[in-house]
Amino acid sequence: MISKESADNVVYGLLARVDEWNLATHSPYKVWMAAVYGSYLGDEENLGDVNVAIAFHIPKDLPPKLASMRAATLKALQGTAPALSLIDISNHHPDMAASCILYLDGDVNAMDFWD
Questions:
Q1: Integer Cα distance of 47 and 96 in angstroms
Q2: How do the residues of the chain divide into helix, strand and coil, expressed in percent and rounded to 5?
Q3: In the predicted model, what is the mean pLDDT of the chain?
Q4: Distance (Å) of CA 40 to CA 26, 30, 35, 53, 105
Q5: Are 6 and 82 in contact (CB under 8 A)?
Q6: Which helix (H) or strand (E) holds 100?
Q7: pLDDT: is 113 or 80 the higher one?
Q8: Mean pLDDT of 72-86
Q9: Cα(7)–Cα(96) distance, integer angstroms
């Protein structure tokens, strides 16, 4: 279990790592979108984990070997937060209606979600 306050810190940490990743010159692709979903969006004070869907912008000319390294990138983005559950939705178009977009194409404009 993780408290809502601790979950907020997990999300802030993830967003900092997303910014670091996207600014790094060695990154073969960038995080295009991050959206939180699940129990984090509810009113409960204690959560099981924090679920975040990540979509990468993958250039069409990126070699397949680099494009397939997304799992390692998710692990890097997770950092040391065991309560953070990340999924890669880059090749899917799930129904994100029950989510809150945290990060979209370089804009962290949903930070007031917690205010």
A1: 20
A2: 35, 30, 35
A3: 80
A4: 32, 25, 11, 13, 22
A5: no
A6: strand 99-104
A7: 80
A8: 90
A9: 20
